[in-house]
């Protein structure tokens, strides 16, 4: 199975959608949703650190790494887009809520 992240970067977009999958999942979780996101929006369907590889890779990942990964991505997106929508599933929802609390404080 392909666990690669998916990016659809629209050159003139003012809106981006960040998709954060759940624990032990992959960006493929959002395959059903991407066709419904307006084509004028950029899409960042990321792969969380430690996911999509071996058990050893996953065991080395931590919640702090995931929080930092999301914060870093949001900082990059904020420099490029006026609006950012964050959609998470399971663990991805918790990371999205944490990012909202800490990024907008």
Labels describing this entry:
4 strands; 4-stranded mixed β-sheet; 105 residues; alpha/beta
Describe the structure.
The protein has helices spanning 55-60, 63-80, 91-103; strands at residues 6-8, 15-20, 42-45, 83-88. It has 105 residues and is of the alpha/beta class. It is globular and about 40 Å long. 24% of the residues are buried. The model has no long low-confidence stretch (mean pLDDT 94).
Quick synopsis:
The protein has 105 residues and is an alpha/beta fold. The protein has helices spanning 55-60, 63-80, 91-103; strands at 6-8, 15-20, 42-45, 83-88.
The strand line-up of the biggest sheet is: 1-3-2-4
H/I helix tally:
3
State the separation between the terminal residues, measured CA to CA.
39 Å
What fraction of the residues are assigned to beta strands by DSSP? 15-25%
Radius of gyration: 13 Å
Reading the helices and strands in chain order gives EEEHHEH
Largest sheet descriptor: 4 strands, mixed
Q: Mean pLDDT, rounded to whole units?
A: 94
What portion of residues is helical? 25-40%
- Supply the helix-strand structural class: alpha/beta
Query: What spatial form do the alpha-carbon principal axes imply?
Result: globular
| Low-confidence region ranges | none
Number of E-type strands: 4
């Amino acid at each position: 199975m392909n666990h690669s992240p998916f990016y659809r970067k629209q050159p003139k977009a003012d809106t981006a959608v960040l998709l954060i999958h759940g624990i032990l999942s992959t960006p493929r979780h959002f395959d059903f949703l991407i066709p419904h996101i307006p084509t004028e929006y950029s899409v960042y369907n990321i792969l969380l650190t430690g996911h999509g590889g071996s058990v050893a890779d996953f065991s080395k990942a931590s919640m702090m790494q995931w929080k930092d990964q999301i914060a870093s991505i949001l900082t990059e997106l904020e420099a490029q887009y006026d609006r950012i929508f964050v959609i998470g599933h399971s663990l991805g929802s918790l990371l999205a809520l944490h990012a909202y609390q800490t990024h907008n404080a």
